[in-house]
Design brief:
The complex is a heterodimer of chains A (about 375) and B (about 350). Chain A has about 375 residues and is α/β, with parallel strands linked by helices. Chain A is about 30% helix and about 20% strand. In chain A, β4 and β5 form a beta hairpin. Chain B is globular.
């Protein structure tokens, strides 16, 4: 079996705010094998962003509190790392793309300075100017992919010198590498873009820059937290196409978070379905979509408009997502579930295990009646 | 969208032109206030034992018998030609006093602004980063105690309590009157221009207490504004982006977050320049600093109208220019600002 890149084991996270405790994630476990794309799908408030932010320890604690669990990244439990070591995990270890390209670039600096910074951090680590205590975090070498050349820049291990210091040659090498990454994300006129500020670019362009910046650190794992949700539908398609092409070129592992089932189907190899902070189903994306083993997944898929639907209204899920402050006992979905029986209301609820009647051994669901899901009309 | 440097020059030119109506306004207000409020200043100017004839001669000399508007036009035309009048009792020209006293005050204000910047802003960052925790409470206690202390009390405590304990000088700008030429009338600058390092060190030591007094009392604004705007900036995604690049927490806070939070602080610091100037009146008095605060106080209490107006003009210029500097810095910090 391949050593997983990322293994999340029994992760539970609460938010403690004045009005009470919100259980954002409850006992979530999943693994990510190198080179794969795992999609996380769920409605607003299902805890998917919390999951994405928890992995590189971006959550503010308090209000967030990690109740239990482990996040093992390349053999190291991230939750056990002291705070000062976190910067060493980020960048070359784990990269991240955020939802709002409007806010995710610093408005005060030129594009060049922002991308160059990520390159400089990586080079400093490659030249061991900074110690790297995260065991075996060898970043992927994207130069093996198609267009990126990094060799020339490596001859000049950069000491942070972006305040105008440093030799002209080093700056030229840095500049050409930054240009390479802008070209990698298919930016037409990278020379001009380098000198611009974020507010002078469109949303789609900014998201391309974000992708270039994340990739320029050569992370082992890339977390994409709804990277296209804030974009126009045409731009969304362009960015998704780009990401798909890049996945083939750079072969990185991606955790792709989205509320959009279509986007996940397009991007992911495996998909995890989150409901009220519980991972209710996990498995190969084709199989989960074709033969879901959890009633929630089934109903969620059924409520997606299928091209131009003309025969009456779309079936909607009755009821609403429970408040994270009062998650129902037992299975969190039981109040809305058409298959509900008495056993569903009893604690502890169903655990995520190999689903009955599933074709693939990696197809898991947290439901007592998985084999009956097909009977839901 | 992109800005040109020529826009900046036009912007600065426009703002400097605004000085003309501002100065005219303060001159009109101060002139009529002083001349209407005090009916017969010659009773004071001519001395306590002056006879009726001497007072009449004084009124004739200063043209007090002509209509007020004529007096105003006469004053304004002499002002425009560079003659700011004289002190009626000592006959010392207003401009010569101001030209030696103002630089000393400016030096004091700049030194305390520097202290407010290097101490107040990081304190605000520390408070915001640890919002709600002990560091935040500690910083708040520190700046509120300064903010709540009356100027004279804080200065007196520093002069009597802290100064002797630390062995810092509490009087004047030099230990002994300097013999070297004083081209700028700023103690540290003059000593450095004369390459006289011992004198420069001496001047810096003399500057510490009055500048600290002025800074400590006004530090709260810089700290509080920095804290508030940092709290707005810290949850933004670009701070997370900076963290996710693997940058150190120091770089995330000071290079990425503070750069964007500083904009508010800079605006407030620009506005504070006026407050600092008025604060110097008391501080200079206590520390015997040879600046303009003491001259302003003497001019007002001694019915030295022209001196008063001169001080008011200088204060107005400083306030306008410090706001202009704040606006320019604002644009330099935030590339989205357009010069208009």
């Amino acid at each position: 079996m391949v050593e997983p890149l990322l293994a999340i084991e029994g992760l539970s996270i609460d938010y403690e705010v004045g009005s009470g405790t919100f259980h954002a994630l409850t006992d979530v476990s999943l693994t990510l094998v190198p080179g794969r794309v795992v999609g996380i799908v769920g409605e607003t408030g299902s805890g998917k962003s919390t999951l994405g932010h928890a992995i590189p320890r971006l959550l503010r604690e308090p209000p967030a509190r990690i109740r239990s669990g482990r996040i093992v990244f390349r053999g190291t439990d991230i939750l056990q790392l002291p705070r000062w070591k976190l910067p060493l995990l980020r960048g070359t270890g784990i990269g991240m793309i955020f939802q709002e390209p409007i806010n995710s670039l610093n408005p005060a600096y030129r594009i060049f300075d922002q991308v160059a910074e990520a390159v400089i951090v990586r080079k400093a680590r490659e030249s061991r100017a900074l110690p790297n205590p995260i065991r075996a975090v060898e970043p992927h070498d994207y130069s093996q992919g198609k267009p990126v050349k990094t060799g020339s820049a490596l001859l000049h291990p950069a000491i942070p010198s972006f305040l105008g210091g440093g030799s002209r040659i080093r700056r030229e090498a840095l500049r050409s590498e930054v240009l390479d990454y802008l070209k990698l994300v298919r930016i037409n006129d990278p020379e001009t873009i380098l000198e611009l500020y974020p507010h002078e670019l469109s949303g789609g362009m900014r998201q391309r820059i974000m992708i270039a910046m994340a990739l320029s650190a050569k992370p082992s794992l890339l977390i994409a937290d709804e990277p296209t949700s804030a974009l126009d539908i045409t731009i969304q398609a362009q960015v998704l196409t780009l990401m798909k092409e890049l996945m083939d070129e750079v072969r990185t592992s991606i955790l792709f978070i989205s509320h959009d089932l279509g986007v996940i189907a397009e991007m992911a190899d495996e998909v995890g379905v989150l409901y009220a902070g519980h991972l209710v189903e996990f498995g190969p994306v084709e199989e989960v979509y074709a033969a879901p083993r959890h009633p929630y997944t089934k109903l969620l898929l059924r409520s997606v408009p299928n091209r131009y639907k003309t025969d009456g209204p779309l079936p909607a899920l009755s009821g609403s997502v429970p408040s994270l402050a009062q998650i129902p006992p037992g299975c969190p979905f039981h109040p809305r579930c058409p298959l509900v029986r008495d056993v569903c209301e009893k604690d502890p609820g169903p655990v995520l295990q190999r689903a009955q009647g599933a074709a693939s051994p990696t197809h898991h669901a947290a439901c007592y009646f998985s084999e009956e899901v097909d009977t839901i009309a | 969208m992109t800005r040109n440097n020529s826009d900046l020059i036009i912007f600065i030119g426009k703002r400097l032109l605004q000085l003309v109506p501002v100065i005219l306004g303060v001159v009109v207000i101060t002139f009529f206030f002083t001349h209407v409020a005090v009916q017969n200043p010659c009773a004071i100017w001519a001395g306590p034992h002056a006879t009726q004839d001497q007072i009449a001669a004084c009124r004739l000399k200063f043209g007090l018998d002509s209509p007020l508007t004529d007096q105003f036009w006469a004053y304004l035309s002499s002002l425009v030609t560079g003659d700011w009048g004289t002190n009626p009792t000592t006959e010392i020209p207003v401009l010569s006093t101001i030209s030696t006293a103002f630089p000393a005050t400016l030096e004091l204000v700049l030194a305390s602004l520097a202290i407010m910047t290097v101490l107040g802003i990081p304190l605000g960052v520390i408070a915001a980063n640890g919002a709600g925790r002990w560091a935040d409470h500690f910083v708040r206690t520190f700046y509120l105690s300064g903010w709540a202390t009356p100027t004279y009390l804080g200065a007196v405590i520093l002069a009597i309590g802290v100064g002797p304990v630390l062995g810092l000088p509490t009087k004047g700008d030099f230990s002994s009157t300097p013999t070297f030429p004083r081209p700028t009338h700023m103690s540290v600058v003059d000593a450095l221009l004369n390459l006289n390092l011992p004198a420069a060190g001496d001047a810096v030591l003399h500057l510490i207490l009055p500048a600290s007094a002025l800074a400590f009392l006004n530090l709260g604004i810089a700290t509080r504004m920095t804290r508030t705007s940092m709290l707005e900036v810290l949850p933004l995604d670009f701070v997370k982006t900076a963290r996710m690049k693997g940058l150190s927490e120091f770089r995330v806070l000071y290079k990425h977050a503070l750069r964007n939070a500083l904009i508010t602080t800079i605006t407030i610091l620009g506005l504070t320049a006026g407050v600092l100037l008025s604060g110097t009146v008391v501080i200079e008095n206590i520390f015997q600093w040879p600046g303009m605060g003491e001259y302003a106080f003497g001019a007002i209490t001694g019915y030295n109208f022209k001196g008063t107006i001169g001080v008011v003009i200088i204060f107005a210029i400083v306030v306008v220019i410090s706001n202009l500097i704040a606006d320019v810095l604002y644009g330099l910090l935030d590339p989205r600002v357009e010069w208009r």
